[in-house]
Structure formats: C-alpha cells, structure tokens
Amino acid sequence: MAEFRQVPADATTGQKLLNWVDNRFPLTKLWNDQWGKYYAPKNFNIWYIFGSLAMLVLVMQILTGIFLTMHYKPDAALAFASVEYIMRDVPWGWLVRYMHSTGASAFFIVVYLHMFRGLIYGSYRKPRELIWLFGCGIFLCLMAEAFMGYLLPWGQMSYWGAQVIVNLFAAVPFVGPDLALLIRGDYVVGDATLNRFFSFHVIAVPLVLLGLVVAHLIALHEVGSNNPDGIDIKKNLGPDGHPLDGIPSHPYYTTHDMFGACVFLFLFSAVVFFAPEGGGYFLEYNNYIEANPLKTPAHIAPVWYFTPFYSMLRATTDLMVNVLAVILAVAAVLGILRGNLSAAGKIVLAVGAIVAVALLKTFDAKFWGVVVMGGAVIILFFLPWLDRSPVRSIRYRPDWHKVVYGLMVFFFLVLGYLGAQPPSTAGNYVSQIGTLVYFGFFLLMPWWSRIGTFKPVPDRVTFRAH
Amino acid sequence: MKKILLSLLLALGLHGNASASQAGYPWDKFPTEKLTDMAALQSGARLFVNYCLNCHSASYMRYNRLRDIGLTEDQIKKNLLFATEKVGETMKVSLDARQAKDWFGAQPPDLSVIARSRAEIGRGTGPDYLYTYLRTFYRDDSKATGWNNLAFPDVAMPHALWELQGQRRARFEEVKDAHDPSKTQHRFVGFEQVSAGAQSPVEFDESVADLVAFMAWMGEPAQATRIRVGVWVLLFLGVLTVFVWRLNAAYWRSVT
C-alpha cells in the first residue's frame, strides 16, 4: 500500500479533498498517466484529431441516446409513431434525434479517417498491435450498433435492410436458417426482432464498446502514441526522463483537441441544423414510410457507411467465385514452386488448396458473398502481421507505395458509391475489381510492403514550430 | 494516373445518370419560397383539411400545432375542426382501413411525413414530387376511378382537386425509340381541357403550391425553429472556434 500522504495545514480545501481521495483512490495518478503527464509526440498533424473526435461523438451518442430512450417505444405497432412524437411533441426532441442520427454518420466518418491515419503511419505495428486489435473490435461493435439502431425507427429501409442482412446469415451452410431464426426471434423481421435489437443497441453492445474503448486508451497510454514519422520518441529521453520529442497532453493537446472539437462541432451543427437528412444519405427518404412487411421497396440500399462492404457482397457472383478459385489455385502453385517449404508443407498446401477450391464450388455464391463481406472487416485484425515494411510511416516508404494506398482508398470509395446504387452489370464488374483490389492490398501486403527503396528514417521527429 | 481516375469517375457518373433516366415523368420544381409564406401555409392548411383529410389521416400532426403557422386556437376550432375533434388531438380520419382498401384498392397513406418520404436522390425533393403529382391527373376511362396520373401511373387515388382544376385528358403519341427502332415509346404530348374548373390554371398551380407547402411544413413542423436556432449555434461556434484557436496558438508558441 502506498504511503499515507499528509498535506500542509495551510493547504486549500480543494487540495485537502484531493489528498483525501488520492489516499484512497489513484485519482491524480490516473489523470497523470492517462492524460495530464502523458507525453505524446509533438509532431501530431491533423490526422491525429480523429481519435478524440471519436470519443466526443461516442459521448454525444450516449447522451442523446439516453434521452431518446425515454420517449421511444420498442414496439412494432408504436415505434414509428414514437419517433415522430419525439420529432414533434417532445421539447427539443427533434434536436436530440437529429444529433443522434447525424452522430451515427459522423461516427463512421471520424472512425474511417482515424483508421486511415493508423494505416498510413503504421500505428498498428509492434508494440501497438493490441491497440489496433481493440480498435478493430470497436469498429465491429460500431457496425453492430449502427445496424441494430437503424431498425429502431421502423421505417421501410429499417425493416428491409434488417431483413436483407439477417437473411444473409441464412446462407451459412447447415445451420443458416436456424441461425437467422435465432437472430430474428421470428420467421420474419417483426416485433420480437425490434425488441431484441433495441436491447442490444441500448445496453449490450454499448457495454462492450465502452469496455473496448477503455482498453484501447489504456493500451495506447501504456506504450505511447505513434506519430507521422513513425519514430519511437522514447528512444530520445531528456534529462527529466521525458521524451525530447514529447509534450505533455495537458495543456498542449487539450487545447489542440478543443480546437479540433470546435471545428468539428461547427461542421456537425451545419448538418444537424441545415441538412439533417444529409441529402438522403444520413436519413434515407424511404425511411419516412412506416415498415410494411407486405411491400418490398424497389431498391434496398444500406446506409452509406455499410455500402463498401455491401458492394463486396453483391460482387460475389458465381463468376467471382470462379475467379477466386483460380486465384487460390495459382497462389497454391506459386507457393509450392517458389516458397521455401518442406515436402510435408507442400503437401499440406496442395491439399488445403484443393479442399478450399472444392468448398468454393460446393457452397452457394451467396454464402461466399457473406464470407467476403465479413472477411473484409476481419482482415483488418491481421494488419499488424501482414505489414512487413522496415519502416512504419508512409513518409519513408517508396513513393509507389503511396499509389498502392491511393488505389485501395479509391476503390473503397468506388465500392461505397456502387453499393448505394441499384445493381447494374457494369457496376458489378467494377465492384468485382474493387473487391479484388481491396483484398489484394491486404493479402499481398507481406510481399509488396517489403519491396522498393525505403528512405532513411530520421532520429528525431520533423516538427515545425507554430 | 489522374487522367485514369478522372475518366473512371466520369464513367461512374454517367452510369449513375443512365440508371436515373429510366424513371418516368420529370418532376416540376416546387416554388420553395412558399415554405416561409404564412398566408400560403394557412391557405394550404385549409385545402388540406377540406380536400385531403377526408380519406387521408395525418395522425402525428396535432391541430393546435397550426398555431406555428400563425393561426389562433379559435381560428383552428372555427375553421378547421368539423366534427367532434378536440384542438389538441392529432389529425385522424374515421375512414375504415379495410373499407378503404375495398373502395380504392389501396389504403390511403398517412400524410404526416409524406413530403419527406417522397424525395428521390437525383430526381427532386418530396415537395417537387407532390407538386407534380397533384397537377398531373387526367381522365382515363380504363381506370376504376376514372382517373390516372403522370407522376404516379395507375394510381389508386382519384383526382381530389378536380372541382378546382376541371377535367383534362392526356394526349400521348407513339414514338420510335431512338436507341432501339424495334420498340416504340408511349410519350406524353400534352393535356387538353375537357371541362373548366373553379380556378384558372394559374390559380390552380398557386393552390397546389400552397397545399404542398403545408404538407412540407407538416412533415417537419420544427423546421423553421431548426434553422433559426442553427444560425445562432453556428455563430456561437464560429466565435468560440476563433477564441479556442488563439488559446491553442498561445500555448503552442513556446513549443520548439
């Protein structure tokens, strides 16, 4: 047990109170470890604002969510009307609701940018693998939150979007139909589904999410933040034992993040107050029609933040499965011929490839679509071990690596665009190429990330005084 | 590289347009200045209560909310309540849903948020649609109600405002498809007035615009408040941002 500290008799009441608490709970220590005396690299650029913004949006979603829950009715007969009740009869209900609905889209914008930052500066590399894994877990939770939350207004898109996604689980071989039944709690999406999604949305998933956020932050503050140069600032310590290139988060990043939060809130408010529907992308127009199980909309599109993954699902046709089978076979042959494998290893690889191709051809393309869509998210978890480049940051990678990153981002955006459009033949070919580019980026990373002339990494961070 | 990206983007854009152009009759632009015109909104409310509220409900809309468009509770009670409704109630109808289905083939939808639901990305706003829809009814004897509509072909609803507009027929011509000569297109050429209505075409357009303005207002009664508050919020955040920006700069000045 820590020593029981005394404060001088003439200390202020505040100091006495803090000392009383500190002797019983590590309040000052927590503050100093997590923020106050947490030394972060001083060369953070604009990309480093999105972590704290994600935190801000999370708090906002929880607070607005609490107030929405007070007035919302999770009942198939009442849900749609209760949302309109919030919009009309609850004082400032429209504001709370728009903040929550815009917040969902803002959350994804901020988180996608946050993830992209991690990607380009190698923030997932050793020793920050766990931070990245927790982050991927947060992203998964966020997707679950968004998906289940979207059912709650009980509009046509809520209903049919949920119907489509839950039906995907029915494509899983053998257990599929039972699995879909278990998720829905009924044979079609209905009141039972609404109730359980409400429960997951307001308590189950947020609990896990908060736990993961705490783990994400603790892990980050344990190993220290990466920076745009990808340099270990702990290698250059000053006489006071703190990194020479580091700076205490408080007050420097406090004011920094406050400034970022102000700019963000300005843009966010512009949407909430002047374009809350986000042009039909944040609040889909069809969702102002109450859910009708007997009337399927002509075109069912998920909300924009899911569309890249939805495109990959739609891209997985029989043709695509054949292409995947060929790619798998070629990869296996290359592995056997070129890889330094023992005879046993070669046999295992050959048998594995044959089994995989056989499975690809056995099950329905729809099932593989689900696998591709899920895999597109799951593959992110493996990033720390896929990247073999000798440097962390994109700044010191060969220039053509930037083209590779750019291509991946470009196709991700194209996939997002196509996922919001009605299916078309040309669009489908483009999304098939996009899907291959996306997976190629990650699965071939162990090879391409090593190739090229890397630039020398400086000892100290690049910092231009303000 | 940039050229390739640009051409890809262009191709995608064209592809998007191509799929949008398959949709039918183009929508007219709703005169949006009506949205803030109290007289127009009040006239729209009167038309709505007289012509729409017999079959359609607006069951999330309370009568006394009409105070927001400048009516007093007395005016609402005197002019807009006909039966036994109370002023704090929502705009319900006594039409039985099942009977309605028998009569029209479809249940008349609730109109509370109709203006919000009918927008289409790339085609127009909900008011654009309603403004077009309510002005493109025409006589069609092949339909059960005797009416058809350009913006909503084979619609189950008869022309509720026909007394105002009068009766019109639509003329169509068969045109060879420019892209595929083996096909012909059934193309709308124009209306011809069969019997005059109580209003001239110009007056009727005004009336419909008033009615649509009211429905757009009803879709989101908080809209005016939202925009008014929004201006102050942005002003406040703008000023705050400047102060926080300078505060941040003051701290970072000493960092070298």
Summarize this, please?
The complex is a heterodimer of chains A (466) and B (256). With 466 residues, chain A is an all-alpha fold. Chain A has 18 helices and two strands.
Radius of gyration computed on alpha carbons of chain A: 25 Å
Oligomer: heterodimer
The biggest beta sheet of chain B reads: 2 strands, antiparallel
Largest sheet geometry of chain A: 2 strands, antiparallel
SSE-based structural type of chain B:
alpha+beta
- Most extensive interface between two protein chains, with residue counts: A-B, 50 and 50 residues
How do the helices and strands line up, and which of them pair or pack?
The complex is a heterodimer of chains A (466) and B (256).
Chain A: H1 13-22, H2 27-36, E1 39-41, H3 50-71, H4 79-88, H5 93-121, H6 129-151, H7 156-169, H8 176-184, H9 191-223, E2 246-248, H10 249-274, H11 307-315, H12 318-338, H13 343-362, H14 365-378, H15 383-386, H16 399-420, H17 425-443, H18 445-448
Antiparallel strand pairs in A: 1-2
Helix pairs in contact in A: 3-5, 4-5, 5-6, 5-10, 6-7, 6-9, 7-8, 11-14, 11-16, 11-17, 12-13, 16-17
Chain B: H1 2-20, H2 38-52, E1 58-62, H3 73-80, E2 90-91, H4 97-104, H5 114-117, H6 126-133, E3 137-139, E4 147-149, H7 162-165, E5 166-176, E6 184-196, H8 201-219, H9 223-252
Helix pairs in contact in B: 2-8, 6-8
Notable characteristics:
heterodimer; A: 466 residues; mainly alpha; 2 strands; 1% strand; globular; B: 256 residues; alpha+beta; two-stranded antiparallel ribbon; 6 strands
Overview of the molecule:
The complex is a heterodimer of chains A (466) and B (256). Chain A has 18 helices and 2 strands. Chain A is mainly α and 466 residues long. Chain A is globular and about 75 Å long. Chain B has 256 residues and is an alpha+beta fold. Chain B is 45% helix and 14% strand. Chain B is built from 9 helices and 6 strands, in the order ααβαβαααββαββαα. Chain B has helices at residues 2-20, 38-52, 73-80, 97-104, 114-117, 126-133, 162-165, 201-219, 223-252; strands at 58-62, 90-91, 137-139, 147-149, 166-176, 184-196. In chain B, the strands form 3 sheets. Chain B has a two-stranded antiparallel ribbon. Chain B has a two-stranded antiparallel sheet with strand order 3-4. In chain B, β5 and β6 (184-196) form a beta hairpin. Mean pLDDT of chain B is 87; it is low at 1-22. Chains A and B meet through α4, α5, α10, α16 and α17 of A and α1, β1, α5 and α9 of B.
